[in-house]
């Protein structure tokens, strides 16, 4: 039985393959070129009497193709996520100077402003009154509303106290009370807050809207935007 020895042709082939080296990659990722170089290296060292089966070769090619496809998909998703972040940043920056609704009844009054709010009730209410309280809890203005239906109702405070003079700038809150099914109840009140600035890399990677009065909220939590 003939045996295969290290002839000149085989040695020459082996020498040529050994002279090829996979280039170092800064990111540690194998490219398609690297894969074929390693595959050629594997073939040069195999026993000629026991060549690699076709199904093994196909399996290796399929595995690499799948890995390469996943890598490309990850790159595309990263580009998509970056594009989405840029779009959200642009959207958030357009809100500076405008007002967004906050699920809170407190707000900060600036000179010349007329704060807006919204009261919410699941059932009709009667004898509804809006009380404006300062930071000390003192009622500075009382606004009778009367009867309202279920749902949401918007309102605006002109910024004046019961005396008729403009209220000083500072922290205030709306408190809304009325009768629901004949029983005294406090209704939910929300306020509009002006956006002073935007933080693009806030807590948890969220885009944050910095509101007047020192608080902030995530862009994703915005449910309504007002011009003023």
From TrEMBL:
Extract one GO BP annotation from the record. bacterial-type flagellum organization
The protein here is known as Basal-body rod modification protein FlgD
Q: InterPro entries recorded for this chain?
A: FlgD, FlgD/Vpr_Ig-like, FLgD_Tudor
Q: Does the keyword Transmembrane helix apply?
A: no
Q: Where is the FlgD Tudor-like domain?
A: 88-222
Q: Does the keyword Transit peptide apply?
A: no
Coiled-coil ranges per UniProt: none
Q: Which family does it belong to?
A: Belongs to the FlgD family.
Superkingdom per UniProt: Bacteria
Report the function annotation for this chain: Required for flagellar hook formation. May act as a scaffolding protein.
Question: Which residues does the UniProt record annotate as the domain FlgD/Vpr Ig-like?
Answer: 116-178
Recorded hits in Pfam families, A to Z, give:
FlgD (PF03963), FlgD_ig (PF13860), FLgD_tudor (PF13861)
Alphabetically ordered keywords of this record: Bacterial flagellum biogenesis, Cell projection, Cilium, Flagellum
């Amino acid at each position: 039985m003939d045996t295969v020895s290290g002839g000149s042709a085989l040695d020459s082939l082996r020498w040529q393959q050994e002279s090829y080296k996979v280039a170092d990659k800064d990111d540690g990722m194998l490219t398609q070129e690297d894969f074929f170089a390693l595959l050629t290296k594997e073939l040069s060292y195999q026993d000629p009497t026991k060549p690699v089966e076709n199904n093994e070769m196909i399996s290796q090619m399929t595995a690499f193709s799948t890995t390469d496809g996943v890598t490309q998909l990850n790159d595309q998703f990263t580009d998509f996520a970056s594009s989405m972040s840029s779009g959200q940043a642009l959207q958030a920056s357009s809100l500076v100077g405008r007002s967004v609704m906050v699920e809170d009844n407190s707000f900060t009054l600036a000179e010349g402003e007329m704060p807006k709010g919204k009261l919410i009730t699941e059932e009709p209410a009667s004898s509804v009154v809006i009380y404006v309280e300062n930071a000390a809890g003192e009622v500075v203005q009382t606004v009778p509303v009367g009867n309202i239906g279920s749902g949401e109702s918007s309102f605006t405070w002109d910024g004046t106290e019961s005396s008729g003079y403009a209220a000083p700038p500072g922290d205030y809150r709306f408190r809304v009370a009325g009768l629901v099914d004949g029983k005294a109840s406090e209704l939910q009140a929300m306020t509009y807050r002006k956006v002073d600035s935007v933080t693009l890399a806030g807590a948890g990677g969220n885009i944050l809207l910095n509101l007047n009065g020192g608080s902030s909220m995530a862009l994703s939590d915005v449910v309504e935007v007002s011009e003023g």
